[in-house]
Amino acid sequence: MSIQVKNLSKSFGQTPILADISYDMDPGKVNMIIGKSGSGKSVMLKCIVGLLEPDIGEVLYDGRSFLHAEFQVKREIRKQIGMLFQASALFDSLTVEENVAFPIRMFTRQTSAEIKQRVAFCLERVNLNKVEKLLPSEISGGMKKRVGIARAIALQPRYLFCDEPNSGLDPLTASVIDKLIYEITHEYNMTTVVVSHDMNSVTNIGDKIMFLNEGKKAWEGSKQELMTTSEERVREFVFVSDFMKQKIVV
Q1: Cα–Cα distance for residue pair 2/54, rounded to 1 Å
Q2: Which of 3, 143, 163, 241 sits at 20 to 30 Å (Cα–Cα) from 81?
Q3: Domains in the chain, ordered, with CATH?
Q4: Residue 247 pLDDT more than 80?
């Protein structure tokens, strides 16, 4: 269940976004990609899952090339990927139940009864009850995120990608989403990649962390190493409130 990024670079026109990034994700763990806004985090995530094509570099899933693979190989890998988007990306015209069932209907030949059973299991796993007939407009932002997680795990993926999963949530709800992501990752032994600039998420669930700075990999290590690193750019990001206080005093 390994994911390897090798020498990844991406530009939009004449503007470089990512520059020669290599990063090995730890299988069965929560791998964080952190950095300031505009550092290239989401672009990197989209390159890894194939939503964007990098200019240079390679992405390997269990040693298999993804970016340069044939259509059928890409389709097989995509079936093993679950994705939680920043804005949940639920279909407004579909009920909660239909949203979770969508990837199952697209990628499998399961019967209606089997799909209904799987959907019920996934919704129960994210602690949602009696909402299956509701539309996304009828539930809260935190519930939408949980529906997004339920949909992301519907196909029992080997890889889970989360783009700013706590965006727009209050601290308590964000903590609930963090806990779910961490539990599901370790319960199902998935390789999870989370893009975030939320230090609470990093310290709560990050097993391995990479810090991006202006499109370049500036640091990587464990959560414990993150808190004690001497790398100034990382420390400024991690302890931003302390740095701001110092600047104000000066």
Answers
A1: 20
A2: 143
A3: 3-223 (3.40.50.300)
A4: no
